[in-house]
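Question: does this match?
>
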Amino acid sequence: MVATADGCYAYRNSCPHTGAPLNWQPDQFLNYENDMIECALHGARFQIKDGYCLHGPCLGQSLQPLSLRREGALLVIAIAAD
């Protein structure tokens, strides 16, 4: 999950190019500028607001969004079984 001033966004931790995890280290998904999600394997960069790939080997593809719901003061990611 990524929280910005515009809202919270959640995506499956899987690059559309190879299925590899996106994170560089545990819970680290953003590029150096903290304005895009970046795949640690091939450097593909995705918009935070919609998961759309703007750079890299999966250009034009998108991350798989996950549903968020509020439970009291918590945001819960709804992960469906494959």
Remarks:
- The CA atoms of residues 22 and 39 lie 4 Å apart.
- DSSP finds no helices and seven strands in the chain.
